[in-house]
TrEMBL record:
It holds the Pfam family EAL. PANTHER family: CYCLIC DI-GMP PHOSPHODIESTERASE PDEB (PTHR33121:SF23), CYCLIC DI-GMP PHOSPHODIESTERASE PDEF (PTHR33121). InterPro entries: Cyclic-di-GMP_PDE-like, EAL_dom, EAL_sf. One of its GO terms (molecular function) is cyclic-guanylate-specific phosphodiesterase activity. This is EAL domain, c-di-GMP-specific phosphodiesterase class I (Or its enzymatically inactive variant). Residues 1-210 form the EAL domain.
Length: 215
């Protein structure tokens, strides 16, 4: 069986305008899995979905999510729909409207990859998102690049001022964890928390995870 890594597969999906269908399948399959495993659903604090450019322009997506929530009875507050910063820059009005509609459903939203451009700082403060996810490129140089530290601190101040929550992504080891903790970042995400696993292997036993971590 041939396999194709995401960095090769996803651009093809975008090119042939199939990203909306893919996003909906991911959402549907995940919610069905959680519905079949209520113990896992009740223990879940954050379930993130990466949205494609196509979904950001899809005005019917909130209605699709709303119907899925009605059918499954899942807690919408545990679902977070993540918007890539570059897409938010190019489709700001659509993103703002989507965030508002998802909030009406009780869902959360996140600005993913903040800190890679000056425009992403403005959006971090102005978009009605609940989470600001710091870009891995920004966090990589915290120990030897003073400007990265200043930029990360700026995002943390924006979050504190606007009542948003920060997430450090791609935290791979304890050294990286300690660095982001000094900034006051609220949560971490990455292999230091847990290695990526297929959805079917995800179980509800979270006893081995530390507080302040997102699986």
């Amino acid at each position: 069986m041939l396999t194709c890594p995401p960095r090769e597969f996803l651009p093809l999906i975008e090119r042939f305008e199939l990203s909306r269908r893919l996003d909906r399948q991911v959402i549907k399959q995940t919610l069905c899995h959680l519905y079949r495993h209520p113990d896992l659903a009740s223990a879940l604090g954050y379930c993130g979905f990466n949205l494609s450019r196509g979904s950001l322009q899809d005005r019917t997506l909130p209605a699709f999510i709303g119907r899925a929530l009605e059918k499954t009875g899942l807690d919408p507050a545990s679902l977070c729909f993540e918007i890539p910063a570059q897409h938010a820059i190019n489709f700001t009005a659509e993103c703002r409207q989507l965030c508002r509609m998802l909030r009406q459903l009780g869902c959360k939203t996140a600005l993913d990859g903040a800190g890679t451009s000056m425009e992403s700082y403005r959006l971090a403060g102005r978009l009605p998102v609940d989470y600001i996810k710091l870009a891995p490129e920004l966090l990589d140089g915290l120990h030897d690049e003073p400007t990265h530290l200043v930029m990360a601190e700026a995002l943390q101040r924006i979050a504190n001022t606007t009542g948003k929550v920060t997430i450090a992504t791609s935290v791979e080891n304890d050294i990286a964890r300690r660095r982001v903790q000094t900034l006051g970042v609220h949560f971490i995400q990455g292999r230091h928390v847990s290695a990526p696993r297929p959805l079917k292997q995800l179980v509800s036993d979270t006893g081995g995870q530390s507080a302040g971590a997102i699986a």
